Amino acid sequence: MPALESDLRSKPVSDLSEADAVLELEHLARELTEHDLRYHRDEAPTISDAEYDALKRRNDDIEARFPALVREDSPSRKVGAAVSAQFAPVRHGVPMLSLDNAFSDEEVAEFVARIRRFLKLGEEPVWFTAEPKIDGLSSNLRYEHGVLVQGATRGDGRTGEDVTANLKTIADIPHRLKGKGWPELIEVRGEVYAPLDAFAAFNAEAEAAGQRTYANPRNFASGSLRQIDPSVTAKRPLRFFAYAWGELSAPFAATQGEALERFAGWGLPTNPRSRRVEDLEGLLEAYAELEADRPKLGYDIDGVVYKADRLDWQQRLGFVSRSPRWAIARKFPAQQARTILEGIDIQVGRTGSLTPVARLKPVTVGGVVVKNATLHNADEIARRDVRIGDTVILQRAGDVIPQILGSVPEERPAGAERYEFPSVCPCPLKTPVVRETTGGGAETVVRRCTGEFACPFQRVEHLKHFVSRRAFDIEGLGEKQIQAFYDEGWFSEPADIFKLARDEAKLEALRERDGYGETSIRNLVAGIEARRTISLDRFIYGLGIRHIGETTAITLARGYGSVGAFISAMDQVAAGDEQAKEELDALDQIGDAVIEAAAAYFAEDHNRQIVQRLLAELDVQDAEQPKTDTAVAGKTVVFTGALERMTRDEAKARAETLGAKVSSSVSKKTDIVVAGPGAGSKLKTAAELGLQVLTEDEWLALIGDTPAAEG
Ligand code: IVH
What is the DSSP letter of 353? Predict the structure, then answer.
């Protein structure tokens, strides 16, 4: 979301004014939410873990300086992935927690010392297990009487998704425990992961077929496990390692090491590199060995997990907030490699932004072959002074898009010149490129082609966006096909896609072609026809208007209800109608950027015609309206303090579905305050104003969701 990277982003936290901080926290909340969705829901992150962490840290730092500005929807209040509506929710009887990280030997020493202090140990040796930290996704397998009865993802740690049918397709996971001695009830926890070679083979095949590829093995594992159709999961090369447990009917081991042995005896795969080690020295040695062998393992690991071996000690050590005191993850540093920068290509995005992409001499970093890396923008290239022909240092932090850290000046070939960022778009029109400014007029790092729809690159990107998964999601029409039909001159705007499905002459021409059998043509037509009926939010998102992402599209769809109301409101906004603008502004989370972008889009006659021609092909369904016949319809609700039975997002979504409005601050306009443990000033204000205050359970009873029995 480069548009949000205003000048504020480069200001140190200590220099921010309070007004800056408000803005910046809002931007960070929006960006991080969007990145969360890309990561967890789409399994297609667009920034590296390190960049994500940096944004999160900035958010935390600003909040630490301005505690009063902490937003209700602050990223610091969220844990892990939201649960999707595709799968039934599974409440974990024993929460699936995360681990604290250690990045240095000192931090590991501190971990050992803390345990010694806490348990008041003298000279007594402390044993640990050192286990590879598998970079996949953790799952919970529930065995009753030795039979696998349910499998779930971690989700947000408290509630996961029921993916039993999918987990059962993984050959490593026994449907029945072998041997004997297993407790009547045991939840086995471990990691679903994808071997590197199988992952690479899948991506190569998918790319050749014009289908979606995955950024890394972890996203691939997660995407494969969370398929609606288990037969798709069955074809994916997933594996499993067991390393922990949840609910138990009876203890089954005295140490972690013994637990792993029992798992293996019951037919559950355990990692062959997990072992017992003694004290700090053993921990550091295990780390060094695993780090050295990491490239040979055949699957991604991102560190080593240390666990106090004795379970009675684990019991005594307990937990601090969300992580156990008895375990820690020693993370590996990012993996680096050197290679040659062979060229720099400019990619033109849907909205005309120009992104420089490094073309690299292929090199393996952490088991993955890297050929391209983003160089972000012109300023970044200038700052790092990377030149074509340079030897560059590449970093892959167990994750997404590899980063170029810089070049090695001593190895620069003679005559290598500074990179000159193009001043015109690389498209045949050669439209001039401008530096983008923020609403306030400050320059940003983004260069943009001004060609809009006249720029063929932007046009084709618009079409790709239109058919993408979160927009029209047209099966059989991937980026490759869009590009091909575009080059052919068949597609120039979205309406053309729907015309193709009924154009016998073109379909006949397709039949003549290699690679297009009768079945694939039938599927293509069916895929297109299936989307003639479309929800209003997908329609709005599909238009690809700047700043109107999926969440905003949903807000707009709910706000206007029907496509007719939406279009006429946008026409009025474009015509400068103040009332229409105010109505738009009044919608939740809609700000100036969206209003300006919508106005600019609908002010263009050309765009309005594209929309009209598209509408002639479609049946756009009205948005689902919030209910009016519930106990809380029309009421304003504030959630404060900790919620124990649901996440705040869940609570908000549920309340909104029932027609309530959820607000973050308590005022006279508030009808109900739902207060959990730790509620502070808001609860006080509510009491002063004499508002109705409910516990979480009372709230659930009011809306008719009986609280689930405690696990
Ligand atoms: S133990 C209470 N052991 O790391 C601790 N976790 O940050 C439970 N992971 O969500 C986790 N390998 O996805 C444990 N050998 C291992 C692991 C492991 C990978 C992941 C797991 C967990 C995350 C914790």
Answer: B
HSE-CB at 606 with a 13 A cutoff on CA atoms is: 7
Ligand 1 atom closest to residue 99's alpha carbon, by position in its atom list? 7
The domain 636-702 belongs to what CATH superfamily?
BRCT domain (3.40.50.10190)
CA of residue 433 to ligand 1 center, whole Å: 47
Does 80 sit in the ligand 1 pocket, CB within 6 Å? no
Is 506 an annotated catalytic residue? Answer: no
CATH superfamily of 536-621: 5' to 3' exonuclease, C-terminal subdomain (1.10.150.20)
CB-ligand 1 contact for 138 (6 Å cutoff)? yes
Handedness of CA 147, 150, 152, 156 (dihedral sign): negative
Question: How many residues are present in the chain?
Answer: 711
Q: What is the fold, at CATH topology level, of the domain defined by 102-331?
A: D-amino Acid Aminotransferase; Chain A, domain 1 (3.30.470)
On the question of pLDDT at 708 being above 50, the answer is no
Q: Which two tokens stand for residue 657?
A: 């579905």
pTM of the model: 0.58
Least confident of 4-18, 238-252, 526-540, 669-683: 4-18
Give residue 100 CA to ligand 1 midpoint distance, Å.
10
pLDDT tens for each residue of 477-502: 988 889 999 999 999 999 999 999 99
Residue 496: CB partners within 8 Å, gap ≥ 6?
490
Strands 636-640 and 403-407: unpaired
* pLDDT for the residue numbered 1: 38
Within the chain, which residue ranges are assigned CATH 1.10.287.610?
A: 3-78
99 lines ligand 1 (CB under 6 A): yes
Q: How many CB atoms lie within 10 A of CB 204?
A: 11
Among 11, 56, 120, 133, the active-site one is: 133
β 672-675/636-640 pair status: parallel
Mutation test of ligand 1: which of 138, 156, 245 has the most ligand atoms closer than 8 Å to its C-beta? 138
Measure 36 CA to ligand 1 centroid, in angstroms: 20
Specify the amino acid at residue 445: V
Residue 186 one-letter amino acid: I
**Which residue's structure tokens are 């789409």?**
42
Q: What is the pLDDT of residues 60-96, one digit of tens each?
A: 888 878 877 777 777 876 655 545 557 888 999 999 9
In CATH, which of 3.40.50.300, 3.40.630.30, 1.10.10.10, 2.40.50.140 is domain 335-450? 2.40.50.140
Check if 191 has its Cβ closer than 6 Å to any atom of ligand 1: yes
The whole-angstrom separation of Cα 306 and Cα 96 is: 17
Domain 3-78 classified CATH 1.10.287.610? yes
Fold of 454-531: DNA polymerase; domain 1 (1.10.150)
